[in-house]
Amino acid sequence: MELSPVCTEECVIKSDRGHRKSKVSRDVEIDIEVLYKAVPQLAKVFRITDKIGEGTFSSVYLGEAQMRDGRREMFALKHLIPTSHPTRIAAELQCLTVAGGRENVMGVMYCFRKEDHVVIVMPYMEHQAIVDIIGSLSFEEVRLYIYHLLKALRHIHQFGIIHRDIKPNNFLYNRNTKMYALVDFGLAQGTADTQIELLKDLTGLRKVPRPVFGERNLNSCTPAPSTTKQAAIKTELVKPGRTEDPVSRRYSSASRGPLPVRTQSSSQKPQRSVHQSLTCNCHLTDRVCNICMSRKQQVAPRAGTPGFRAPEVLTKCPNQGTAIDVWSAGVILLSLLSGRYPFFKASDDLIALTQIMTIRGSRETIQAAKTFGKAVLCSRELPRQDLRTLCETLRGRRPSPDDEVTPLTEGSKDSPATLHHKIQGDSPTHRPTEGTFKKHKDGAGETPRPLSNRTRLQAHQDRSGCTKTSTHPAKQTSETDCMVQDDERGWDKVPDEAYDLLDRLLDLNPATRITAAQALQHPLFKDL
Ligand code: ADP
Ligand code: MG
Ligand code: ZN
Residue 3, Cα to own-chain centre: how many angstroms? Predict the structure, then answer.
């Protein structure tokens, strides 16, 4: 492939922006003009036709260039926000240049810069959004998808790269060509022995935790909320310190909303000090005492997307490794096996932790957290769920024990005894607030329940694109049709190995969690 990164006179380049088809919105057109102005060299090489991605830290554009041999090639142009730290940008590039271009990891072709504007040029890979195709995926496709994701993870982990933001949006999948590509090293970090030099330089760059948009600042405790509605489950993460030195402690509390959660970190003496410093009397209450108020902030990396964060990230464990990416791969597998995306939809870390406990069990979570020096307090025991039963129920393949249920929605008025974690199961058809799990009408704290029959049917409709409504007499036919389609996609014979792998990916303890390399050797992939 030939393309001149710096345009010279002999470059065969068409930059006929004027001929750009005007199917893009005016806003996008303006953004493209602004990009051409910010990095004028681009205009000599690319005809930018669309914006294909927009995130907090970048915008990604589709660009076309004419190659020397006359072919036209498509590129993805990632324009990083100008405020990105130069080392951050360089590290992202280095991950792509060193590890990219093979093993399902996106490669990089060029990089353009003018002043503080940087554009990373990658080969364009057409892909489908998981949210759009989750309803029609076969089990075999899911198996291959996870296999290829694990391959990418094994590869980057060999380089000592922790991606930190593994989620379907960052793992491009082309269903037709069966191509896969891991993208977005914008949050990557290095392991202690990373081979990516610039990742070493990142240490210390983000020492001060920034409030993340849309998330509660866990460290700014407010007095008891005046609202009478409180959650039934209080999960607490409390950081102990030496009791004689309260200032040396740190405390995180969510004192508002559905889930008062606290963790206690005992990073100095992980195993022993977990219980010894619960000396204040505010734990499991909705108040924050002065001792806790004066605790220092816990600093640990927590970049990523809440629903995909591993327990050790959610509890701010300072020692985080490549296992956090494996956890995220587990959440993706859980999502694909259950047909629910996103699976965990949490607005903050403590809600996310409670959602994990709902699936993996509170006792197990508390036990695992202890091993990495965190004390988690949960007001009520949440039993561990059987993964096959859970996924099959969410797929509508198993009867739900309770049809008379109320949707569990964010902001709903729940009694203090109400179980308030929500495992949101937004369907591809975007039912925004329908929870995957339901609670009893009486509002009493309940273990998560599978979908009601009605929701089950909707799940079928979502998956298969069936449009008949559940209230119509044709319901039965519709449901049967959907089930048949589901069976054809192999969902009637998901092997135990799939759930066994899921169980190992979602190991609450990062020390025993399967690695990507080990996972590729799992019996689920024996024929690959
Ligand atoms: P951000 O840091 O803003 O999330 P990403 O690198 O994840 O940036 O890119 C955002 C989106 O742009 C991706 O989710 C994907 O849809 C699209 N994208 C990124 N790189 C490519 C590529 N090489 N080919 C096609 N689409 C891409
Ligand atoms: Mg991204
Ligand atoms: Zn306290």
Answer: 35
CA dist 97 and 173 (Å) reads 21
Residue 286 maps to a domain: no
CATH assignment of the domain containing 98: 3.30.200.20
Please tell me the distance between residue 512's alpha carbon and the centre of ligand 3 in angstroms. Answer: 32
The pLDDT score that the predictor gives to residue 294 is 82
Could you tell me if 219 and 252 are in contact, meaning their C-beta atoms sit under 8 angstroms apart? yes
- pLDDT surpasses 90 at 151: yes
Q: What is the predicted pLDDT for the residue at 482? A: 79
- In this structure, the answer to whether residues 87 and 135 fall within a common structural domain is no
Would the pLDDT of 247 be above 50?
no
Q: Does the CB atom of residue 100 touch ligand 1 within 6 A?
A: no
Which residues are part of the catalytic machinery?
Answer: 165
In this structure, are residues 119 and 111 in contact, taking their beta carbons and an 8 Å threshold?
Answer: yes
Question: pLDDT category, 494, cuts 50, 70, 90?
Answer: very high
Identify the residue whose C-alpha is closest to ligand 1 atom 10. 53
474 domain-assigned:
yes
CA of 174 to the centre of ligand 1 (A): 13
What average pLDDT does the structure give for the chain? 76
Helix (H) or strand (E) holding 376: strand 374-378
**Which whole number is the average pLDDT over 165-185?**
98
Range of the domain at 81: 48-124
What are phi and psi for residue 85, nearest 5 degrees? -65, 135
Residue 11 has pLDDT above 70, yes or no: no
**Cβ pair 65, 75 in contact under 8 A:** yes
Residue 31 vs residues 27, 36, 49, 50, 83: alpha-carbon distances, Å: 6, 9, 11, 9, 17
**Is the Cβ–Cβ distance between 142 and 494 less than 8 Å?**
no
In angstroms, the Cα distances linking 171 to 106, 148, 174, 303, 522 are 9, 10, 10, 17, 21
In the chain, how many H helices and how many E strands? Answer: 16, 13
**Tens digits of per-residue pLDDT, 19-77?**
445 578 999 999 999 999 999 999 999 999 999 999 889 999 999 999 999 999 999 99
Region 166-174: mean pLDDT is: 98
- Of 50, 60, 89, 106, which is best to mutate to test ligand 1, by the most ligand atoms within 8 angstroms of its C-beta? 60
Residue 92 Cβ < 6 Å to ligand 1: no
